[in-house]
Amino acid sequence: MAAYSRFDRLPVNLSRSASASLPAQLAEQIRALVLQGVLQAGEALPSSRALSQQLNVSRGTVVFAYEQLVGEGYLTASPGGTRVASQLAPLTDSQQIQPASPKRQKTSGPTFQTPAESAQPPTPASQETALDLRPGIPDTSLLASASWRAAWRQAAASPGRTFPPAGSPQLRQQLAQHLRLTRSVLRDPQDLMVTAGARDGFRLVLTALRLKVRGRPLRIAVENPGYPSLQRIPLAFGHQILPVEVDQDGLQPALLPTGPERPDLVLLAPSHQYPLGASMPVSRRLELLAWARKNGAYILEDDYDSELRYRGDPLPALAALDQAGAERVITLGSFSKLLAPGLNLGFLLLPAHLRQELIGLRADLGNPVSSLTQEALTLFLASGGLRRHTARMRRIYTARRQLLLTGLDNLPRGRVLPMDGGLHTVIHLPGLGAAEEAQLVARLAEAGLLVEALGPYWSPQRTSGQGNQERAEPWRGLVLGFGGVPDRKLEQGLGLLRQVLRELAPG
Amino acid sequence: MAAYSRFDRLPVNLSRSASASLPAQLAEQIRALVLQGVLQAGEALPSSRALSQQLNVSRGTVVFAYEQLVGEGYLTASPGGTRVASQLAPLTDSQQIQPASPKRQKTSGPTFQTPAESAQPPTPASQETALDLRPGIPDTSLLASASWRAAWRQAAASPGRTFPPAGSPQLRQQLAQHLRLTRSVLRDPQDLMVTAGARDGFRLVLTALRLKVRGRPLRIAVENPGYPSLQRIPLAFGHQILPVEVDQDGLQPALLPTGPERPDLVLLAPSHQYPLGASMPVSRRLELLAWARKNGAYILEDDYDSELRYRGDPLPALAALDQAGAERVITLGSFSKLLAPGLNLGFLLLPAHLRQELIGLRADLGNPVSSLTQEALTLFLASGGLRRHTARMRRIYTARRQLLLTGLDNLPRGRVLPMDGGLHTVIHLPGLGAAEEAQLVARLAEAGLLVEALGPYWSPQRTSGQGNQERAEPWRGLVLGFGGVPDRKLEQGLGLLRQVLRELAPG
Questions:
Q1: Are residues B479 and B456 in the same domain?
Q2: Chain A, nearest residue to B395 by Cα
Q3: Do A150 and B182 touch (CB under 8 A)?
Q4: Cα B500 vs. chain centroid, distance in angstroms?
Q5: Same domain? B185 vs B231
Q6: What's the total number of domains in chain B?
Q7: Count of alpha carbons within 13 Å of B35, Cβ hemisphere only?
C-alpha cells in the first residue's frame, strides 16, 4: 500500500534534451526539494506508478531515482512506501559550496592547504593557529592587483584559443624580454617553451634525453644537500641519482665523475643553492660548463628565485655564459616564488640544437598549461604587472629579511648562514644529532611554530665527493621560510624559536 | 667628438631596488623613448660619459645599454657618437601587444591556432579563408557566459591558494557529482584526480604501471583504427603498442592476446570509438571486464565526448560496470570537447586500490593544473554553468548534425557511417587507394575545404586480429568535424565536398 502523499503532482520537471539522464534529473530535483525543505523529513513521496504517470516516463526511471536517493540517505524505503529520511545526513561540501555569482567580486573562501602542508603529515599544533615558517611559501596577498585581475578577466572572455605545443608565441616573447631584463639572457623566443613549472619542464627534459640514449636509465648528478622535490622526479622514472657535495660556492665540478659513470645531466641551482644559499662564482660556472662540453653532458639550471636578491645584483643565469652554437645548459624557470606556487607556470630555456626535438616531443605528450592561463600571463607581463609586483615584493621581502636577521641576532645557540637572496634561511646547529634535530622540530611544532629540519636535505645515498664514496654527514639545524608570514607573526615565531633554543643550549 | 644632444638630461630614471639590472633598465627606458617618439630618428644621444654622470652610474652601464640597443637596431654607433637609428625595424609582436587594461572587458584579439592547425603542416588553402571541417574542434563561441566570467573573476581574486596533489577537494566533489549525473558513475570524490586533460592522466597511469612491473616496457593494446594523439604517448616512453581490430561494436575482446604477450593495459573509447563511432554494447563490455580480471590487466577508458549524444541515452561509463573492490577500469575524463580544448582540464577516475599509489606519484611529479583554473572550474560547476552550457551545446550540435546529414544525403560517392554522438562523421569511400585518398584531401584543401583522411587512423603496425598477424587494410575516406564551424560555413563546405566528390565519381 502506497503512503499518502500530500503532492498531487511533485514539483519536478524533466527535460529529454538535458545532458543528464532522466533518472539522474529526477534524483537531483528530489534531492533539491529535500534540501530546500519542500519535502520534509518523514514525508511520503508519490508511488513510483503515480509519479511515472505524472511525468510520462517509465516506472523504472522513478524506481531508479528513488533507489539512488535511498542509497544516498535522502529517502527511506519501507513496505508502506518511499519517504523522506527522518535523519538527514549532513550536507556534503559540494552542496555547501557557494556558487559563483556575477555580482560577488571577492570571497573570503575556505582555508586552503599550502604545498608544505599537503606534502607533510599533520603536525601536533593546529594548522589554524600555528606560525608557519616552513620554506617555499611566498607572500601572495598582494598579487591580485588591478592589472592581474584585468588580465584574467580579458583572458576568460576568449576561452576558445589554443596554442602550439611550445606555448603562446606572445607569452614566449614576453618571457624572452623578462629573461633579458632580469637574467641577462639574450635569447630568441623560439628557444623558450611554456611549462607548468619546473617539475613539468624537468619531466620533459628527462623524457627527451632518455630517447637520445635509447631508453637506458639516465645518470643525474644532483646537489647534496639539495632540493628534494625535484630529485624525486628522476627516481619515479627509474633514473639514477648521483649526489655531489656542495661547499660554500655551490656544487663542486671537480667532484663530478668523468669516466664511463659520468652523469648525463647535472641538476643544480647555481644562483641560489638550496638550502645552503651559495651563489656559484663565475670561475666555477666556467669550470662546470667546460666539464659539460668535454663530457657531452647537459646542465639543468634550476633558476627558481634569482629575481629575489637583497645584496648585490644577481649573477646572470648560467645560460648567459653558455657557448652559442654549442650550448649545454637547459634552464628551468618558474613563477612559483615570484608570483604564486599554485599558479603552476614556468618555462624551459632550450639550447637551439634541442629545440625541435623537445617541441616535437611536447606535441606528442601535450602541453598541460591552459591557454587561458597563458593568455592571462601574457597580458599581465605586457602591462608591466610582473615588473611592478617584483619590485614591490622585493621591498617587502627586504624588510622582512631585516626583521629576520634582527630576530636571529645572538641566538642562544647555532649560527645563521649568510642569506643574500630568496625566501628562507638556515640555522646550523653543530653538535646536534639526527634524533635531537627531529625532537627540536617536534618541540617547536608543539609550541606552535612550524619549521623544517636541515638534515633531511642530505641524500641518503653515497656521495661523489672528497675522494671517498661515503655518505656525507648531514648538517643538523633548521630551515626557516619568511616569505609567506606577516611581520607580526614572523616576530612572534622568532621569539618562540629563541625561547626553545634557550632551553636546548648549551650545545 | 661627441654628437650634440638636445638633452641636457635624458628623461630616464634608474632604480637600484628594481628587479632589472641597471643596464637593462636604461636600455628599456631608451627603447621606450624611441618607440614613443621622444627620441627621434637620427637624433644624437648624450655621450656615455655625460649620461653616466647624470645618472650616477658607471660609464660601463651606459656603454652596455647603448651597445645592446645598437644590436637591436634602435641606435646606431658612429665615430660622431650614438644616434637613434634612422630606419627603425618594425615593432615586434611583444611590443605591439595590447596591455591588459582594467577598463576593457573584451577584446577581439588576434586569431589563434586551432589544435589541428598546430599539429599539422600548413595546407595549400589559406588558413584565413579555408572552411575548416577537420575533427576535434568544438564550438567555444558561447562558453564565456556570465557564470563563466564570474567564476574566473572570483578565482583570480585569490591567487594564493594551493591544492593537494590529487587536486582541489571541492572540484573533485563537483566532478563526482557530474559523473553521477551524466555517466551513472557513483564513486567517491577521493577516487578522482584532477588532470591537465586525457594525455596528462594517461602519462601518470603509464608511469605508475611501469613502476609496478619494475621498469620493463608496458604492452598496451589500442584500437585499430584509433586516436593517434593518445597512442603516441606510450611510444615516447618506449612502451609497446598492440593494435587490436575494431568492428561495428568497437574493440573485439576476443582478439586480445591472453598468453605471456597479453597486454598490461587496454586503451579504448567504449562510448564512442574514434573515428568509426561505435558504442560498445553491454555484453561486450562485460566480456572485456572479465578478460581484464582474468589477465590482471587494466582497462583505460577514454571517455572524451560521451555527454554529446544525439540518439538514445549514452551508455553508462565502463567504470560504472566495474566490479567494486576488484576494479580494473581507469577512466580518462576531459573537458576539451565539452568546454574548450585549450583549457587542458580533465580528471582520472581511479580504482580504489590504485588511489594511494597514484596520488603519491602525483605528489612527487607535481600536479600541473593551476589552482586558479581548478578554483574557476569548481565555481563554474557549482553554479550550474557546465550543465547549462552542455544543454545549450547539445541543442546547437544536434541542429548542426542534422544539417550535416542533410548535406551528406545521397552523396555522389561513398557511404556516411552512423553518427549517434560526438562532433565528427566518417565518409567511407570503398575502392579508393591510399594515394587517391591523399589526392582527394589535397584537392579539397585547394578548393578551400580542410578535412582529414580516414586511412591514417589505422596503425602501420601488424594487428592482433582475425587470427592472422597481418597489418589490417585501412579503410579509405574522409573524417569531417562539424563542431567548430558556424552553420553557414558548414553548408558551404558540404557543397564544396559534393562538387569534388562528383568529379571523383564513379568509384
A1: yes
A2: A17
A3: no
A4: 31
A5: yes
A6: 3
A7: 16
Q: What average pLDDT does this structure show over A22-26?
A: 84
Alpha-carbon distance of A167 to A193, in angstroms, equals 6
* Residue A499 shares a structural domain with residue A351: no
Q: Is A388 touching B (CB cutoff 8 A)?
A: no
**Domain limits at A249?**
146-384
- Contact predicate A19/B183, CB 8 Å: no
Nearest to B205 by CA among B124, B267, B116, B277: B267
Tell me, yes or no, whether B319 and B419 share the same domain.
Answer: no
Could B394 and A17 be called an inter-chain contact, meaning their C-beta atoms sit closer than 8 Å?
A: yes
Same domain, A137 and A173: no
User: Taking Cα atoms as reference points, which of A105, A30, A126 lies closest to residue A73?
Assistant: A30
**B330 and B433 inside one domain:** no
Residues 45-74 in A contacting B (C-alpha not used; CB under 8 Å): 68, 71
Say whether A139 sits in a helix, a strand or coil: coil
| The pLDDT value given to residue B92 | 37
Contact residues on chain A for B307, CB-CB shorter than 8 A: 19
- Please answer yes or no on whether A383 and B158 come within 8 Å at the CB atom: no
Question: Is residue A117 included in any domain, yes or no?
Answer: no
> What confidence score (pLDDT) does residue A125 get?
40
pLDDT at A6: 63
Mutation site for B-interface testing, chosen from A15, A64, A162, A231 by largest number of B Cβ within 10 Å: A162
pTM of the complete model beyond 0.80: no
Helices A22-36/B169-183 angle, 10° precision: 130
**Residue A49 included in any domain:** yes
ipTM summary value: 0.76
**Where is A75: in which H helix or E strand?**
strand A75-78
Residues of A in contact with B152 (CB under 8 A): 152-153, 155-156, 372
Overall average pLDDT of the B475-498 stretch: 93
For residue B109, pLDDT over 60 is answered with no
Residue of A nearest to B162 (CA): A342
Q: What pLDDT does A203 receive?
A: 97
Q: Would you call A320 an interface residue with chain B, using a CB distance cutoff of 8 Å?
A: no
- What are B458's three cell numbers? 589505422
Average pLDDT, chain B: 85
Do A30 and A80 share a structural domain? yes
Domain contains B154: yes
Residues A110-129 have a mean pLDDT of: 38
Q: Are residues A379 and A391 in the same domain?
A: no
pLDDT band of residue A57 (cuts 50, 70, 90) is confident
Collect all residues of chain A within an 8 Å Cβ-Cβ radius of residue B184: 21, 24
